[in-house]
Amino acid sequence: MSTTYRPLTETDAVAYVKERGFFPRDAALTCREIGDGNLNLVFHLVDPKSGQSLILKQALPYARVVGESWPLTLDRARIEAEALRIEGELAPGLVPKVIHYDADLALTVMEDLSDHIVMRKGLMARTVYPRFAEHMATFLARTLFFTSDLYLSPEEKKAKQRAFINPEMCKITEDLVFSHPYYNADTNHFNPLIRDAVEALWQNGALKREVARLKEAFMTKAQALIHGDLHTGSIMVKADSTKVIDPEFAFYGPMGFDPGAVFANLLLSYASHEGHTPNEAERRDFQAWLLETIEAIWRGFAEQFAELWAEHVKDEMWNAPGYREAYLRAVLQDAVGFAGCKMMRRVIGLAHVADLETIPDPAVRATCEKLALAIGQALVLRRETVQRIEDLTALVRDVAAERVSR
Ligand SMILES: Nc1ncnc2c1ncn2[C@@H]1O[C@H](COP(=O)(O)OP(=O)(O)O)[C@@H](O)[C@H]1O
Ligand SMILES: CSC[C@H]1O[C@H](OP(=O)(O)O)[C@H](O)[C@@H]1O
User: Fold this and answer.
1) Which residues contact ligand 1 via a Cβ below 6 A?
2) Could you report the per-residue pLDDT of 126-167, keeping only the tens digit for each?
3) Given the DSSP bridges, would you call strands 235-238 and 224-226 parallel, antiparallel or unpaired?
4) What letter does residue 125 receive in the DSSP assignment?
5) C-alpha–C-alpha distance, residues 142 and 129, integer Å
6) Which of 33, 42, 44, 74 to mutate to test the pocket of ligand 1 (most atoms within 8 A of CB)?
7) How far is the CA of 52 from the centre of ligand 1 (A)?
8) Which residues cross the membrane (predicted)?
9) CATH 3.30.200.20: which residues of the chain?
10) Which atom of ligand 2 is nearest to the CA of 248?
11) Please, are residues 85 and 109 in contact by the beta-carbon 8 Å criterion?
């Protein structure tokens, strides 16, 4: 097979893994393209004889969701494979194993996680994942700490930063998360029943100023190698296992962006269940679990991060009295602000979430979307009042109570 880039078909994917000996010679392979994300091809290869299976993920030279009119760098496949390798070393068992990376075809062969479910789908079905908070706290603490200036030498950190320069993918986030949702951009689309709320947001100068500060932090605060798109569609789960996938947006950015993405998507689920779950007791129970999960992620993250700091940080200045606490408080406030932006973009911007989109009645959906926008705005505007994680969940409860009582 030629190694010049071309998008593979299912037949090509079978030939590719057979030629390279990833399956036994007598394998009777089946292959299905299962990609449901916005960008790439994902092939699921199964050999029923041996019971072995693999995933082959290939970048397309354009954004799948829009088409060839939106060209996109294939270098994102390298970024994803390298980030998965680093995350796998720093947080063992919390990402799929990378088996093979092919730069010419912009593809990665990796462990098949089909015994897990995409977390967004699990949350839509109100499934509780008892070990998710613990796993996510470990993933965040270890990947962020060990790739930061707190652990690496300045030379090592800058070499890693150079390897993860990812301008095209960052530009997508700069546009779709931090710019377009806040004015009448062509890429936006939203439920016509929330136009009043969206137009009020476009007129809110204080909000736009704070989003601009967060955008600048995203573009300039090169604290750690972040995943860069850690929503619940990029997390696969089962009862006792959590796997983070899809780090093609990875770059050196602000630590708070990753926990912020997780919080935003748990809160989008929270807002969506106002519409999905008419039974009040079931709704309250699940929403309570979502907020407890946010608290447990942050507590576990902050505790492990502080332990890593105590064990590994030798620099006199990083150990100045009170600096560690101030550092973690700033990461929390960044996370809260980024979470707010990431909630609003999923209601107004180009890429929405199934949690909200699957609510069939537009009026019911509008109530949930307005709640998501109200929480998102409060998180951005009031993030600097958040000193502890309980301040964030209290803020969410206050906004929700105020809207539901209307
Ligand atoms: N390692 C894997 N094991 C099983 N399924 C996977 C794996 N990686 C991706 N998938 C499936 O493919 C879908 C799209 O993958 P993703 O990496 O999110 O692609 P994109 O970058 O296009 O968003 C996921 O939602 C999931 O259903
Ligand atoms: C045109 S890209 C839109 C959106 O899609 C990405 O998510 P995913 O790769 O998981 O589908 C990312 O969130 C981008 O902002």
Assistant:
1) 34-40, 42, 55, 57, 96, 110-114, 118, 233-234, 245-246, 248
2) 999 999 999 999 999 999 999 999 999 999 999 999 999 999
3) unpaired
4) T
5) 21
6) 42
7) 18
8) none
9) 10-111
10) 9
11) no
Q: Is the dihedral of CA 108, 109, 114, 116 positive or negative?
A: negative
Helices and strands, counts by H and E, the chain? 14, 12
**Region 117-404: CATH code:** 3.90.1200.10
Domain with CATH 3.90.1200.10 in the chain: 117-404
155 backbone dihedrals φ, ψ, rounded to 5°: -70, -45
d(CA 237, CA 9): 28
Query: How do strand 30-33 and strand 40-47 relate by DSSP bridges?
Result: antiparallel
Class assignment of domain 10-111?
Answer: alpha beta
Residue nearest atom 11 in ligand 1 by C-alpha distance? 35
Report the largest interatomic distance among the alpha carbons of the chain, rounded to a whole angstrom. Answer: 66
Query: Is 38 known as a binding-site position?
Result: no
Prediction pTM value: 0.98
| 228 contacts 164 by C-beta, under 8 angstroms | no
What is the total residue count of the chain?
Answer: 406
- Taking the centre of ligand 2 as the mean of its atom positions, its distance from the CA of residue 39, in whole angstroms, is 7
Using CA atoms, how far apart are residues 302 and 294, in angstroms rounded to an integer?
A: 12
What is the predicted ipTM? 0.99
